[in-house]
Amino acid sequence: MSSLFSLLSSPSREKSNGKIPTAEEFTNGSTLATGSADLEKHGGNVKGMQDTGAGNSAPGISQVTDERMTAGETYSSQEVPASEPQADMFRLRVGPNYRRTGNKEPSGPSLYDMAAVDVLKTKEGKLEKTFDWFKPVLGDHGVEGTNVPYSFVVTANIPQDEPSLFSTPGTGPSFVIVFHFVASPALVAQVRGSEGRLERSDSKNNVLPTYTTYNLLLLAPLFASLIAAEGPFFSVSGGEATGNLVQGRRW
Amino acid sequence: MGRFKAMCLIDNIEKQGFPGFISKFNGKPILINKSGSVVKYFEGEGGTLVEGNGGDGKRCKAINMLINVHVFAYIARKGLFSLLPSFKKMCLNLAFTIEGRNDEELPEVVLGCAKLDGMDLEKFLEKDGL
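Predict the joint structure of the above. Result:
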């Protein structure tokens, strides 16, 4: 019988109550460690997640009847610390004239906060099925009335086996890592407070620079073009919407 | 063309004993192009999530960016594979963003980021059917 291991993390590194089941207990399906990500600051709770019958609003050990999991639960007998770093450790492109100047600066605060990271080992590495296993953190919490999704998930499969020079299998034994993010309070506030505009704030002193606007909304159609999807992922009701774009302040 | 970018910044990479040519790629963004796809989920009946492309005024509740590392270039897969045993000794800082190219698309901003400190992949057991 196989078991599923998961990493749980929260920005506060809050974990379950320390009574961590052994791998054997998991293999027997007798217990499941359930940890809740620190979602209070988002106005959410674990019950706000997709209900798989496994949701719990408090950290601790609980019995579950449904094998599927909500984000942040863990079968793991190990504790692998995961947390949310400061976004400004990453240097990203800034304008104007980036092509000429090549300037990069520390990023502003991330638009989505990390809620949990899950890891599992699979034979086939089928990413789509993983989403069925780990229900995302759901909610509205301020983004209702817009088309800004509250939950943003990144799923990647890392091959377990040494790659071959002569073939690209496309699937195979993998470590699947699932990053769960939820809209940050700042994102919600910016969407609400600016009627659709996302303005940049400085992570260190909270001063709003005069020179720029977060252009996530402008980039949204490009994001959608990754899969040639119809329409943008992010569009906002209200504001100065222009077609699929939201007109922001320019340089 | 894809614009989704992933970055991995390894803390104290100079102490990991990697060759210099690897160290200089620390924190460099990787453009997710053919290996990436996005799935959107909309409100369904009874609070469920329905995969699709929207329409009918339904709200996008969640998006899932899928990155299939199996189709990365050989040299990238080889490099990643060689690093796997070292993950348990490393602190990985990962971030995702959308590439901005023109002035009106800049500055870029981190969509989401996570730190994985000492992840021992050997301890994970296998799950069938996925």
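The helical segments of chain A are 23-27, 98-101, 127-133, 185-193, 216-224.
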